[in-house]
Amino acid sequence: MSKDIVELQEDVSNSSLYSEDLAPVPTSLRTWSKWHLAAIWVGMAVCIPTYLLASYMIKTGLNWYEALIIIGLANLIITIPMVLNGHAGVKYGIPFPVIGRAAFGTKGVHLASVTRGIIACGWFGVQTWIGGLAIYAIFNAVTGSSGALGLSVGKFVSFGIFWLINMYFIWKGTESIKWLETYSAPILIIMGIVLIYWSYAKAEGFSVVLNQSVQLEKTAATITENKDFLNTSTLHLNALKNKDGTLKVSEYNIVSNKNSSWESFTEEPILIANTENVQVQFRNNEILSSVVNANVISSEDKGSSKLWSYLLWLTAMVGFWATMSISIADITRYAATQNDQVAGQFIGLPATMMLYSFVGIFVTCAAIINFKDLLIADDAPWDPVSLIAKFKNPVVVIVAQIFMIIATLSTNIAANVIAPSNAFSNLWPKKISFKTGGTITGIIGIIIMPWWLLDTISGFLIFVSGLLGPVLGILIADYYLVRKKHLELAELYKEEGIYSYNKTGFNTSAMIALTIGVFTALIGYWIPALNFLYSLSWFTGFIISFVLYYMLMKKSKVKLN
Fold first, then answer.
1. Which residues pair with 237 in a beta bridge?
2. Where are the domains of the chain?
3. 3-state DSSP call for residue 292?
């Protein structure tokens, strides 16, 4: 047995806090190597949100390599606490809800673990609906149907099929999850390479493709307010160009102006009097763009500095895996050694996030010159669903949607099932198993009705995810600074052990640090003057709770070990 691994030496199986699913994983079952852990990260990281990450940054004025550097740096940063928090999982073989009992108390941990679990349930429902839409698209491609625009019986049936596929891997247990991630990882990597090659071949050069990113930085219509005696404003129109530099647009129309008609497109500024709700459309022969709203930019608004923009995006990218950084021990407990979990996470996470963000950038840049019906940057097919819709060949559509199903399934199972299953199991260990917890996750995923909340739930879930920076700060401070990486394993399963904190089940220091950390991170949401705290909420909450918890525990008289 490795000196880095501690096994349970006392029989605590009669405790209400103990179950087979939450018990330490014995060394004989530590079958996950660094390549399995790397594969699980490939499976989680390859998803539509990863594909879209760079697009959000480019649309705000960053160029493609700035976006890629920020994504790479952010994922290197988040991998560090990921590895630090994964240490206890390897050493003691226990999941996050059990590790959290040391810092938060046997009852206090539910606040952190169930919050983490509910967030995962929300994402589970959304991802399952997306996977169902991929199955629905395959059905339409096979039957030659155009499919329904709104909700339909076919979409609900497809959702149900994909839900059952997810449930199959939950009911089969963690070994089936390892199998899924191991075999899906190479398929997903190949998919990314194929997309890059297709884009390169169609555009006839890497530099030709990447040069198009400049066009994606400009929205189709912007208005600059002029502070002069004429009280006029300037409308700027931006249309896409072919790779030879010729315009793809011939005419424009200010749709919001009832007296307006189609005019020859011009790159020269246009003086306008009314700046409210200006809508513009573009065309080239019979090809029409979507109708876009012109963004109003004050000439006095110099915007935030480039450095501040970098920090904001860095915070957002770090927060992308904030939930997984808390519950990573749910996965690392199956690793054979600390070297496996460290190497596996550093190999799998930053590289995959950069690769698939680059795929999103490269393929979308190529689409500008590969598809004639794209006239403005606002219509660029940043998400894979929009890209696939531009292909008419049913074979291409079917193969692409199969890849979508594999990517969505591997992300859903690893990122959105394991954590809530353990969190719900920890609520009532003797009655709720991992499989039952997974079933509860699946049911909540239906109850949230993702077909209605798809466009709004993401913002809510990201907001709630920002609450979890303080949780991670407390976990790491407790394990490394307070307890020096030493836990009394058997005590974690005792109702009246040292981690019950005088039988209350709550560690007061953790509750105070958590409350103040969350409050500090979110106060800027309501008070504009403190908006910088909210903009950097993950770092804000993490640092405040980390420092405060350590200081409170130093002054407390609770028995540590």
1. 221
2. 27-91+118-205+308-486, 221-288
3. strand
What is the spatial distance between Cα 345 and Cα 86, in angstroms, rounded to a whole number?
Answer: 10
Q: Would you identify the CATH topology of the domain 27-91+118-205+308-486?
A: Hydantoin permease (1.10.4160)
Block residue for tokens 């501690």: 6
> Counting every residue, how long is the chain?
561
Give pLDDT tens digits along the chain (561 positions): 456 788 988 999 999 999 999 999 999 889 899 999 999 999 888 887 788 788 778 877 788 888 899 999 999 999 999 999 999 999 999 999 999 999 999 999 999 999 889 888 988 998 899 889 889 988 888 887 776 667 889 999 999 999 999 999 989 887 888 888 888 888 888 888 888 888 888 777 788 888 888 888 788 888 887 665 566 788 888 888 888 888 888 888 888 877 778 889 888 888 887 777 888 889 998 888 888 888 777 654 444 567 777 887 888 788 788 888 999 999 999 999 999 999 999 999 999 999 888 888 888 888 888 888 888 888 888 777 777 777 777 888 888 888 888 888 988 988 899 999 999 999 999 999 999 999 999 999 999 888 886 655 555 555 665 678 899 999 999 999 999 999 999 999 999 999 999 889 999 999 999 999 999 988 877 888 887 787 778 888 999 999 999 999 999 877 666
Which amino acid makes up residue 372?
A: K
Quote the CA–CA distance of 79 and 146 in Å, as a whole number: 43
Report yes or no: 467 and 522 within 8 Å, Cβ to Cβ.
Answer: yes
Tokens representing 112? 């952190």
CA angle 280, 286, 290 (to 5 degrees): 30
Separation CA 130–CA 151 (nearest Å) = 13
